[in-house]
User: What shape does this take?
Amino acid sequence: MNKNWSLILVVAFSLGFGLKLYFDNNQAQTANNQTENTSVFQGTNQKNVDLFDETDPRVRVVYFGFTHCPDVCPTSLAMLSAALNQLDTTQQDKIRPIFITLDPERDIASKAHEYAQYFHPKLEGLSAELEITKPLAEKYGVVFKRTELKESKLAYTIDHNSYFYFLQPNGELITKVPHTLNPAPIVLAIENLE
Assistant: This one.
């Protein structure tokens, strides 16, 4: 009787271990597919833009916000613009400043890009459905939520934290700079990339 129980336990363990390996492998493949899909946004003229295109060696300086933001986004993007204006051409060519909207319902790609261009000609504006933006934002710790505004023509706002995310071409986080009223921390972070 002990031999039968031992055999049953060995078979059960083997099946359990095999199932675990199978499910772990499927989860890893799903995660890889999701990571690949979460980097493609729409840019100007509805063209697909791969945020993590590794053929582009520039460091991404990414800001998540929305075009209807009354204060934090315009202030932050103005500081990014001021930082860019303090850099020489060689330094500017090493970075890719990007504004990603957290409000794709109102901010189509052309609108996000037009908004970004208002602050600086090198600043790209990108948009994608929340199914793409949300996992990417969460990966870097971006906190945001939609808040309804019942007695406002805007109807809702997007509450969000405010950071500049410095990313390697493959998406690896280098550093992040919090909201600032002075471009110096952004300039310093860019100079520290060298």
